[in-house]
Structure formats: C-alpha cells, structure tokens
Automatic annotation (TrEMBL):
<dbReference type="InterPro" id="IPR027165">
    <property type="entry name" value="CND3"/>
</dbReference>
<keyword id="KW-0131">Cell cycle</keyword>
<feature type="compositionally biased region" description="Acidic residues">
    <location>
        <begin position="1020"/>
        <end position="1039"/>
    </location>
</feature>
<dbReference type="InterPro" id="IPR011989">
    <property type="entry name" value="ARM-like"/>
</dbReference>
<feature type="domain" description="Nuclear condensin complex subunit 3 C-terminal">
    <location>
        <begin position="523"/>
        <end position="872"/>
    </location>
</feature>
<comment type="similarity">
    <text>Belongs to the CND3 (condensin subunit 3) family.</text>
</comment>
<keyword id="KW-0158">Chromosome</keyword>
<feature type="region of interest" description="Disordered">
    <location>
        <begin position="947"/>
        <end position="1039"/>
    </location>
</feature>
<keyword id="KW-0226">DNA condensation</keyword>
<protein>
    <recommendedName>
        <fullName>Nuclear condensin complex subunit 3 C-terminal domain-containing protein</fullName>
    </recommendedName>
</protein>
<feature type="compositionally biased region" description="Polar residues">
    <location>
        <begin position="981"/>
        <end position="1002"/>
    </location>
</feature>
<dbReference type="InterPro" id="IPR025977">
    <property type="entry name" value="Cnd3_C"/>
</dbReference>
<keyword id="KW-0498">Mitosis</keyword>
<keyword id="KW-0132">Cell division</keyword>
<dbReference type="InterPro" id="IPR016024">
    <property type="entry name" value="ARM-type_fold"/>
</dbReference>
<dbReference type="Pfam" id="PF12719">
    <property type="entry name" value="Cnd3"/>
</dbReference>
Length: 1039
C-alpha cells in the first residue's frame, strides 16, 4: 500500500508540473505567474529528488520534439528561467545542479534533437543565471568541457547554442582556451548562423578587434551585420586605431546590403558621433585622420549631410578665418598674412563638403522649380534661394579674400598642403564672370603655375623632387584641383589651353637651349602633362604660343632621352597623353615608346607599356602598326595562331614586330615580374595583364586582332592570375577577378575561347610534363593543387549562364540594375558549351601512351575528374556518340583508379541513356565535322567497340580468421549436428581451399603491381608519392 501511495503521489506531482508547463507554453505573459506556482510546488514537495524526478520525466518529450515551433521555444524559455531563478524558500541551487547534470547527459546523447535541446537550455540558463548563484566548480567544469565538445558537433544548431553557452566564460582570463577555440572555429566554420554566434560571443580585446573587422567582409549578410553590432556595443571609439576606424566605415557605408549599411550608419550616428563626439562632425573627423584617409572622411560627411545630422552653428563659416589685422592670432602671424587664420585639415574638408552639398541641393531645388508650376514651383525656388544664401554666408565674401586665404596656406608650407587643396576645390563654387574677379584669379593662377616643384637635397648632395614625379605639384589630386580652378576661371573655348601654353613657352626656353636643370625639366613636363590631361582636343592646342609639333620635337622626345630617369619617366607619360590627342599617332612618338619599353629601366618600361596599351586601344593595334610601317597589309591576319617571339636583347628595335607581339612578349621577360620601387602594385606584367584583359572584354571593337589569338591571351591571363608572382600585385588580382566574373557571361564566343584555353593552361601549369620543371615533392604537390584549382575555376566559367542581350532595365527610381542572367545553355553551340570542353579533354587524355610517368598519370587523372563533372545536352547527339567512342579508351588510361573508373562508368551509362539512336552507325564525315568545329586534328577508330572495358580485377585483402573463431565454429557445429554433411568435411580441406584462393588473390595483386610499374620523369620520390596515393588531386577541390 505504501508503494501505491508513493506512485500515486508521484503521478499527481507530475500531472501538476505538466499542467504548469502546458499553461506556460501558451503565452509568455503567464510565465511570471507560473514560475511562482512551480517554485511553490517545489518548496512544498518533501523531497527535492522526488520533485526533480517528476520534473525531468515531464520534460523528457521536449527533447524528442524536432521542430522549432513557438510552443517549444516558450517552454524552453520558461524552464530556463525556472532553473536560473533564485528562491530562498527552496533549495534552488541544488535543483540547478541536478538539472545541469541531467542536461549534460542529454548533450552527450546520440540523438541530435536531444543534444540540440540540451545545449539550448544550458545556454539560456547560463545567460540568465545571476552572479551570486552557488554552483560547485565541478559542475561548471563539466558544463564547460561538454560545451567545448559540442562546439565541434556536426549539427549547426548544436554548435550555435554551445558557443552561446560558452560566451559568458570567454571574458574570463582563466578560460583563455575558450577564446582560442572561438577564433579557431571561426576560420573553419561553414555555417553562417554559427559564424554569427561566434562573432557575437567574442569579447572586446586587441586580439579580437581585427578578427571581428575581418568579418565585415563575410559573404553572409547576417555575419557582417553582427560584426558591426559588436563593434558598436563592445569597442569604444578610442580603443580602435585610426586605420581600423576608417576600414570599418569604408566597408560598412559602401556595403551592398542595405541592412548592413544601416547597421554601420547606426554605429556612426548613435555611438561614434553622438556618444563620443557630442554630435559634432568636426570632432569625429579628427578621429579619422582625413589627410591620410580623405575619401573616408568625405564619405562620412556626405552620409551625415544626407541624414541631416550636420547642424551649422550661428556665425560658423569660412569667413571667420578671415579677420582684420587686429584680430589675427599671434601664433599664425609668423607664417602667413596677419589677417588670415590658418584652417585645420578637418575643418577644410568639413567646409568643402558642406559647401558642395549646399550647392548641389540648391541646383536640385532649382531644377525642380523649373520643372513644376504654381505654388510648388515657388516652394522649390524659395528652398533653392535659402540654400544659395547660406552658401554665400559660408564662402569668403569676395574672390580677393578667397585668393588671400589660399595664398596664406600656400606660403605656410607643405604642412598645410591638404588644407590648401581643399580650398582650391572651393574655387569651383565662385562666379568668375566678372572681369575684375577673373583678372584677380588669373593673376593668382599665373603665380601658382609658375611655382616650381618642391625639392630638397639629400645627404649625397643630389636634388630630389618631392612627390610622385609625374603630376604637377607632385600629387595627382593637387594637379586636378589646380586644373579645375584654372578651367573655371578661363572657361572660354581654348582660353585655358592658351594660358597654360604661354607659361609652357616661357618655361621651355631653357629646356630648348639645354641649359635647364633637372627641376626645371620636371616643372615644364609636369605642366605639359596637366595640359594634355585636361585638353579635350588637339585643335585647341594649335595656333597658340607653342605648336603641338614643336611641343613634341623640342620637349617630349628630348625629355624621353634625358639622362635623368625621373625626366624620362614623366616625358614618356606625356608622350602617351600626346598620342591620345592625335588623330593618328606619329611614327616618331611610337618608336620612342617602343625604345623606352624595351631598353628603359623598369619604371620607364612601366610607363611606356601603359602608353602603348592606351594607344593601341584608342587608335587600334593595326592603325598603330600602320603608322610605323605604312606599307603594311590592311588585311586581317586571321590565320595567325600565336604571337611572334620577341628578342628583347637585340640592340635595334625592328619596326616589323607588331605592337601586340611586342606587348605580349613582355610576359616572357622575367625581370618585369617584380614591382617597381615607386609603386608596389605596378610592374610590367601587371600592366600587361590589365591591358590584355580590357582588350578581351572589348574584343568586338578590335576586329584587327585575330580571334585565334584570344585563347592564347586568355591562357596567359589565367596563368598569371594563379601564379605566385601575382600574390603581391593586389590591383592586378582585383582587376582579373572582375574580368573573370564578367567575361564568360558576355558572349557565347567567350565560352569557346575558355574551352580552347583549358588544355593549354593546364599543360603550362602541371609540373613534370611538356618540359615544365618539377622540384621537391612539396613543390610538386603545391603546383598540382594550383593547376587543379585553375581547372575547377575554368569549369565554373564554362557553366555560368550568359547575360541577357537586351538593354539593361531601369528601376522605378531611374537607377540601372545589374544585367539580368538567363540560363541560355541550350542556345550555345556544342563547341561553346560543356560538350566541346569534354571532347577536348577526352582527346587530350587518349593522346597519352599506355606507359606514363608519374607526372603524366596525375595529369591524366586530374583531367578525367574534370571530365566526369561535365554535362551533355540531349540536343547534341553527335558529341554524345563521339564521347561514347572515346570513353572506353579513357577508362583504359585510368584503369588503376577504381573511384575514377566508377565515375566514368556512370558517365557512360548516362550518355547511353540520352543517346536517341545508340545502334545507328557513326560516320567518319560526322566525326570530321565535329572535330573541324573544335579545330582539332585527331584520328578516331570507328571500328572499335562502344562498350566500356571491364574493370581489372583487384586483389582483395586476405581475410584473417582467428583460430579462436574457427575453434568455436567447429565446436558449435559438432554440438548441433554431428551427422550433418558439413560436419563430415575435414577441416584441412576447408583450410586448403582458403589457402588456394588467397594464393590466387596474391598472385593477381602482384601481377597488377608489376604491370602498373612506370618510369619516372621528375624523381624517385615523386613516383613513391604517386604509388602511395594515385589520387593526388582528389583533395584539391577543397582548396
């Protein structure tokens, strides 16, 4: 009777707990009340173990419920809150320990749902648990160790909640291994939700700041958004370096996702601007070092202005820096005019962006007023007038005041150069229609253009010009600002060119007389470059102080032959700009560029290479060659299959060498692979790669370039993209990545080009074949992996769909969207599709002999793995039949690799199913037609069988039967039936049969090994590697 009463009491307790849980899962509003009821029930229960037993049994069905419905989530939240709640009336700490041990047991279960629910509840409890909870250290150690194991669970949901549970312990220095575990898993994690949880769980420190910022480039939008959320909540503005601040804003404000950009803007507005800078944009700019990161500062100001977060204080303007002599500060009177107060760099950028914003707003409102009528037009006109009035209050009152302000900063020295350039850009907002203003500004420009470049003397007594050595003033941005102001002041047609040429005529006098020094040459040529870059046509240069022909003969060509390398470099840059303005490039100019390209130092060759590529793309390669050799044939050399080799060691430059041959030959010059000292991202190979990528993208504009050369160019670009030398050329890598993204989508002929380039690329990259060098086993392995990576990359380019040929659609707001993509594989001819690539690979594989070296075997194996990934369309019956003929010979080439043979057999079965007429005779004319379209010369034996060869028998490992097992089987058989036929067979006969089978299997294995022995071309170590693992490239797909 006592046991029955206890059971009834337990059942009643379980029913009451179940009732409370059912009520709690209905709504979150009942949780507080139900928590009190359940706590009261626990306190009234005579034994805690009795209550926990009933509680755990009632909760067990939750661990089998797979779907994440709201009912289950509310139950989890209620149970977690109950376990984490502190109740002095009951032994809540002991209950928590019991419950945690119960959850740890479930977390180690083989059931994925049980592990998921256990980790979910544990994470909720840990986050809700107050700091004064009394739980033994042993329990916490068990929880931490269990969650560490679950972080590597195969179920993403389990990993997510395990990381969430450990996040509270990651801040503890005693648990530094948790932080190391998070950082390790973040680099390996494939699931976006898990990566997001890791980012949210990382504590703020110098070790995690860079990791979190790197996550702003994650492919997942949620991870990027979480990264900005963590940066806003955990990292104060002062704790981040200037570089990290600018990287965060540069990436976030320009993110392609609206949600991510909004999160970054929230960080900028709520945290950095409001919390740390008291809403003052000027203070925020001081945290960003606008002199170094000008574009970031400008983006921040534009964002704040669009959000109407820039509030101009009363009386704040540029005019406050222009005071009377008595108001000047003593500290500034030493360096500038007493009436001018020098402007800080942050303030100069601030006022320039504010004035630009006001001017654009006034222009937009004025346009709206002109496009509307009535009251609406009056409102727009009033708003435009208010913007213009505010702009006038901010800008200096007169042009003379503006000029004095700029002159004061110029005279203050190079330390104020950034501010001076910002002020020069403000000049575009003034009205120079008045003759007096134009005269004052013109006199200031004369002074500015006559100013020689800044220079200094080094320790050896040599004069060194400060700056990039190419642009006027030593800086491209400075030259652009001066040119904008000059064209604004001298806005009439040809007036700008007339003024600048008059100054060049004056500066060119000592250069003509050969009495000019290095600095004078640089000053004159930099001003010529400013003119050529800003001029729209050569006709604006004619009839002025110095004619274009005289400019070329007396300054540019002599400058390209000057003894000083800096003079040569800027002269070659000017020659390229001069050629772009000519209707037809002059022969002397082209010859000098070719000489500088071949014989000049690396920095000179880079500039000459840029000039030749620009002239070739602007005028056309054939027109450039015709200017060098007028009697050249006008016909397109469509039969040209490769570029002519160029010997760069010849002392004389042969004009018969075509421009494209000369440029492409630069790839073979290994001395040009390294970057120049002036710019880490510039070398001849990088310039050539970028130029030829543009030529391929715009190949329709250059019919003089034979289409047969396109695969050759593409092969070189792919090889360059995957080569080691391009690792340090970030600009080239970015350029080629964009090129490879768009090139296969633009035209079907581009896919044909990729198909033709596939085999040459892999041949050139695979070590140990066709004369390619090998090396150590590690180097050979790395080279093979790189080649396999390239093959998969080209396969992806073949499989991407084409862009729609129609014009780009416009959205409702008028912005053009990305070109739409359609799956147009059915429209492609077979030579442009995967069928053509498959046939090229198949013919390449069958061209190898039966006896292959280790390098050849690995090469053939890699090709076959790509072949197994290609698909054939039902409409291409001819290529299907041809591939069925070739597959048998392909399987014979890789017969020793069982997995690869299985894939090829599956491919053969699929081709047999889609072959509509498998018994129809395949004629030689059909074969010749297919091979002719592929431009391949191959002899196919049509008399051979289409059936796949049988897979050679591979010896199975000997089955080892233990003596104990044999003895037990013999005893059991004797006990069961001594008169059975099996029992009368002697044991020696059975052993003899097993032994004879094992001998036959061993003989088969030995014969297969003897027949598979091959000679090695690279070295014996490589052959050993191949024998140990013939599937050398199977793991490379994950690279």
């Amino acid at each position: 009777m006592g046991e029955n009463n206890a059971d009834q009491e337990n059942n009643r307790l379980a029913q009451r707990i179940a009732t409370i849980l059912n009520d709690a899962r209905a709504s979150y509003a009942t949780h507080n009340r139900k928590l009190k009821e359940l706590s009261l029930l626990r306190s009234k229960t005579p034994s805690l173990s009795l209550f926990f037993s009933a509680f755990s049994k009632t909760l067990t069905p939750l661990f089998d419920f797979q779907r994440r419905l709201a009912l289950a989530e509310r139950t989890v939240a209620f149970v977690s809150a109950f376990a984490a709640a502190r109740d002095p009336a009951s032994d809540s700490d002991a209950f928590l320990e019991f419950f945690l041990r119960f959850l740890l047991h479930a977390a180690a279960s083989a059931n994925r749902t049980a592990r998921f629910r256990a980790c979910q509840i544990i994470s909720e409890i840990i986050l809700l648990l107050p700091d004064d909870a009394e739980v033994s250290n042993d329990v916490w150690d068990e929880v931490i160790e269990c969650m560490k194991l679950r972080v590597r669970d195969k179920i993403p949901g389990v990993r997510t909640f395990a990381i969430r549970a450990l996040s509270r312990f990651a801040n503890d220095t005693a648990n530094s291994d948790i932080l190391d575990l998070f950082l390790e898993q973040l680099s390996l994690e494939q699931n976006a939700d898990v990566r997001k949880m890791i980012v949210l769980s990382l504590p703020p420190s110098t070790a995690t700041s860079q990791v979190i910022i790197d996550c702003t480039l994650d492919v997942s939008e949620s991870v990027r958004k979480a990264a900005y959320c963590v940066l806003a909540n955990k990292f104060p503005l002062q704790s981040l370096s200037i570089k990290l601040r600018t990287v965060i804003l540069q990436r976030g404000l320009a993110d392609r996702s609206v949600a991510v950009s909004k999160e970054c803007f929230k960080l900028l507005r709520d945290e950095w601007l409001t919390k740390y800078c008291n809403g003052d944009p000027l203070e925020l700019l001081k945290f960003l070092d606008v002199e170094t990161y000008e574009s970031v500062g400008e983006t921040v100001m534009q964002t704040l202005l669009k959000a109407d977060l820039v509030k101009l204080q009363n009386g704040a303007s540029i005019q406050q820096y222009i005071a009377s002599n008595g108001d000047a500060e003593d500290g500034n009177s030493v360096h500038c005019t007493p009436s001018i107060q020098l402007i800080e760099p942050e303030a100069s950028l601030y006022w320039r962006t504010v004035c630009k914003h006001l001017q654009s707003e006034a222009h937009a409102k004025g346009s709206d007023a002109a496009a509307t009528m009535g009251t609406e037009a009056e409102v727009y006109a009033a708003e435009a007038s208010d913007k213009n009035d505010l702009l006038e209050k901010i800008l200096p009152a007169t042009v003379d005041d503006y000029i004095e302000l700029v002159r004061a900063h110029i005279n203050a020295g190079s330390i104020h150069r950034f501010t001076c350039r910002q002020l020069l850009l403000l000049g575009a907002m003034f009205n120079f229609s008045d003759a007096t203003n134009r005269k004052s500004a013109g006199a200031f420009l004369q002074e500015l253009l006559h100013k020689p470049p800044e220079h200094e003397i080094d320790n050896e007594g040599n004069v060194v010009v400060i700056g990039d050595g190419l642009s006027f003033g030593g800086d491209a941005d400075w030259a652009e600002a001066v040119a904008r102001l000059a064209k604004k002041v001298h806005a009439a047609h040809g007036e700008f060119e007339e003024i600048v040429l008059a100054i060049i005529e004056e500066l060119a006098q000592p250069c003509r007389e050969r009495t000019a020094d290095y600095v004078q040459w640089m000053h004159c040529l930099s001003l010529i470059g400013l003119l050529l870059r800003s001029a729209k046509s050569m006709r604006f240069l004619q009839g002025k102080a110095i004619e274009p022909a005289e400019l070329l003969q007396s300054l540019l060509l002599p400058g390209a032959k000057h003894a000083h390398l800096d003079v040569q470099r800027i002269a070659v840059r000017c020659l390229g700009l001069f050629g772009l303005l000519e209707r037809k490039p002059s022969a002397e100019l082209l010859k000098q560029l070719r000489i500088s390209y071949i014989k000049g130092p690396h920095s000179i060759s880079v500039e000459a290479c840029k000039a030749l590529i620009d002239l070739g793309m602007w005028h056309g390669p054939q027109e450039v060659d015709r200017m060098l050799k007028p009697d050249i044939s006008c016909q397109i050399t469509s039969e040209k299959k490769s570029f002519s080799p160029v010997n760069f060691s010849d002392s004389e430059v042969d004009s018969d060498v075509e421009t494209l041959d000369l440029l492409f030959g630069g790839f073979e010059n290994d001395n040009w692979a390294n970057s120049s000292t002036s710019n880490e991202d510039e070398c001849v190979h990088a310039v050539l790669g970028e130029g030829f990528a543009k030529i391929l993208l715009l190949s329709d504009n250059y019919p003089s370039i034979p289409a047969s050369l396109h695969p050759v160019i593409l092969s070189k670009l792919i090889y360059l993209y995957f080569s080691d030398e391009s690792d340090h050329l970030q600009r080239l890598k970015q350029c080629l990545s964009v090129f490879f993204e768009h090139y296969p989508r633009l035209h079907a002929n581009h896919k044909s080009c990729i198909s033709k380039a596939f085999i040459p690329v892999i041949r050139s990259m695979w070590p140990g074949i066709f004369g390619n060098s090998g090396g150590s086993p590690f180097m050979v392995s790395q080279m093979r992996k790189r080649a396999v990576h390239a093959s998969r990359f080209m396969l992806q380019m073949m499989q991407v769909p084409l862009y729609v040929k129609e014009t780009q659609p416009e959205s409702e707001n008028g912005s053009t969207e990305m070109p739409q993509v359609i799956d147009s594989c059915a429209e492609l001819p077979f030579d442009c599709g995967e069928e053509g690539l498959a046939l090229r690979i198949a013919i390449e594989v069958t061209s190898f002999h039966s006896k292959k070296t280790a390098a050849e075997k690995s090469y053939v194996s890699a090709l076959c793995r790509v072949l197994a990934l290609l698909q054939f369309r039902l409409s291409e019956q001819g290529p299907i039949k041809l591939m069925r003929r070739l597959l048998g010979r392909i399987v014979e080439c890789v017969s020793t690799e069982k997995e690869l043979v299985k894939e090829l057999n599956r491919m053969a079965e699929h081709l047999m199913k889609i072959d509509r007429q498998p018994d129809q005779e395949f004629l030689q004319d059909e074969v010749n037609l297919i091979l002719g379209k592929l431009e391949i010369d191959f002899n196919l034996d049509l008399d051979g069988s289409v059936a796949m060869p049988q897979t050679p028998a591979v010896g199975l490992p000997r089955t080892r039967v233990s003596r104990r097992r044999v003895r037990i089987e013999d005893d059991s058989s004797n006990d069961e039936d001594e008169n059975s036929p099996a029992s009368t067979v002697p044991a020696s006969a059975t052993q003899q049969t097993v032994r004879s089978r094992s001998q036959r299997a061993s003989k088969t294995v030995a014969m297969s090994k003897i027949s598979a022995t091959k000679s090695v071309r690279i070295d014996d170590i490589e052959e050993q590697e191949e024998e140990d693992d013939s599937d050398v490239t199977s793991e490379d797909s994950d690279e």
